[in-house]
Amino acid sequence: MAAIGSTRTAQGGPTLTARGAATRARIIEAAADLVFQQGVSATTLDDVMAASGTSKSQLYHYFADKDALTNAVVVRETERVLDAQDHLLRDANSLAGLRAWAAAIVEFHRERRGVGGCPIGSLAGELSDSSEDARLLLQAGFAMWEDRIRAVLDAMHGTGELRADAVTADLAAAILTALQGGLLLTQTTHLTRHLELGLQMALEHVALECNTGHRHKKARQSGQ
């Protein structure tokens, strides 16, 4: 997936100057903020030009049409969401680490009362049936998210916490499914109950896939 900060144009043209790259990034950021607030369909290119302080000729220099800009927003929002979780998932190599990651997500959305939900999930709901290019980008974004969760589970394999026959791909898919469903319901209800319960149940399933001796050791340590 191409980084939004790339210095090449969306059409694969020549390398941009630093000023050109900054202008392109500013357009994408303005569009992403508008899309987050009001959705893709309600966001016009005129809105983006006004919010980014750019002219029509500038916008069309970097993006052939609204679809091209929307695709750039999808990539940017994916980067934003995954970057925000990187430090938690990167340092999580255990069930306790996964639980800390889940707790941080729940707390973040509790503070916001679920407003906005998951930016990637919201884009998927709006674009997956209407734009194949956007759908493929969103699919790739979810796959990257799932891979990062799976990396934690693979690390648990390596330490012996997770049983050797546990299928980390399936566990990662279940966790991401619980997360996305919970975020949708949190956005709808403005309560984190469904998100918290969904993640708790998904991680309890992971706990059942842990080696018994390892679970007992963790239980003894937590009781000290």
TrEMBL record:
Residue ranges annotated for the HTH tetR-type domain, each copy included: 21-81
Record's keyword annotation contains DNA-binding: yes
DNA-binding region: 44-63
GO molecular function, one term: DNA binding
InterPro entries: Homeodomain-like_sf (IPR009057), HTH_TetR (IPR001647), Tet_transcr_reg_TetR-rel_C_sf (IPR036271), TetR_C (IPR011075)
Keyword DNA-binding found: yes
Keywords: DNA-binding, Transcription, Transcription regulation
Superkingdom classification of source: Bacteria
Protein name: TetR/AcrR family transcriptional regulator
Organism (species): Antrihabitans cavernicola
Lineage: Bacteria, Bacillati, Actinomycetota, Actinomycetes, Mycobacteriales
